């Protein structure tokens, strides 16, 4: 009996969906549907979203997190997603990786935010061990002391989701739409967005190398089964991730008196 095949056979199956340039709101709707209406394990990889878009956590308040006047003036879309976490601006150079797992998918994993964060940290540490000095700093993925990956999570009765936006590259001008958050990680030390971030393209040879390394790391825990996004069933549900309207942003701005 082949021991490698025996080991592989006991690993749980994870469906793998690879996408290119799917709008981030469509991706969030897909993720939420798979989290709430599907029993299987999923990995979603999406390379880029067509236009710069701000994505806030479920409890984010626009006036505290973004420069609303410039956002409205330049018609930058603002999304409130269904998970917690901070605020990011994403674009065609962002790589999105999402893990959606059953309670039993990772043996002995306690389904609380920090244990899940720690487990994913070891997953990416394995994937990126040949590049830079990777670490999990509070809830961020960093090289040395510079952030390149922002995370958000949600835990339901039967499943959990962990999704990351990876900064392959970014336009410094877009970072001006984001305010300095009132609550920041200690390691940030009051640094501006530009001082606090790094570009993965300066550290890793290519996007395809990063994705390949990530999937290789995942294969130590799951049997990956490629699935086309068109083949995913469209179970009916009401998504909670949505675009904020101009009226909502203006109302939030007026409520601050600025």
TrEMBL record:
Q: Identify the keywords attached in UniProt to this record, alphabetized.
A: Ligase
The segment(s) forming the BPL/LPL catalytic domain are 38-226
* Keyword Ubl conjugation part of the UniProt annotation: no
Any one GO molecular-function label of the UniProt entry: ligase activity
Family matches, as Gene3D superfamilies: Bira Bifunctional Protein, Domain 2
Please indicate which superkingdom the organism of origin belongs to. Answer: Eukaryota
Is Hydrolase set as a keyword in this record?
no
What PANTHER family does the entry give? BIOTIN/LIPOATE A/B PROTEIN LIGASE FAMILY (PTHR43506), BPL_LPL CATALYTIC DOMAIN-CONTAINING PROTEIN (PTHR43506:SF1)
Name of the protein in its database record? Putative lipoate-protein ligase A
* Source organism phylogeny: Eukaryota, Viridiplantae, Streptophyta, Embryophyta, Tracheophyta
């Amino acid at each position: 009996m082949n021991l490698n095949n025996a080991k592989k056979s006991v690993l749980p199956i994870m469906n793998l969906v690879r996408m290119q340039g799917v709008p981030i709101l469509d991706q969030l709707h897909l993720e939420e549907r798979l989290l709430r209406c599907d029993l299987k394990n999923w990995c979603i990889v999406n390379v880029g979203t067509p236009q710069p878009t701000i994505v806030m956590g479920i409890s984010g308040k626009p006036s505290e997190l973004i420069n609303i006047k410039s956002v409205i003036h330049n018609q930058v879309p603002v999304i409130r997603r269904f998970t917690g976490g901070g605020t990011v601006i994403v674009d065609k150079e962002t790589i999105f990786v999402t893990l959606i797992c059953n309670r039993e998918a990772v043996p002995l994993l306690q389904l609380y935010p920090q244990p899940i964060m720690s487990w994913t940290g070891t997953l990416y540490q394995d994937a990126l061990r040949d590049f830079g000095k990777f670490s999990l700093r509070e809830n961020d993925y960093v090289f040395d002391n510079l952030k390149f990956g922002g995370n958000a999570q949600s835990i339901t009765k039967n499943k959990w989701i962990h999704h990351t936006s990876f900064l392959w590259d970014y336009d410094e001008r877009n970072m001006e739409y984001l305010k300095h958050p009132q609550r920041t990680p200690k390691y940030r030390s009051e640094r501006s967005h530009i001082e606090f971030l790094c570009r993965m393209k300066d550290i890793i040879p290519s996007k395809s190398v990063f994705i390949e390394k990530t999937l290789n790391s995942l294969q130590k825990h799951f049997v990956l089964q490629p699935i086309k996004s068109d083949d995913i069933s469209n179970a009916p549900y009401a998504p909670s991730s949505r675009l904020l309207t101009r009226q909502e942003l203006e109302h939030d701005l007026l409520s601050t008196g600025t």
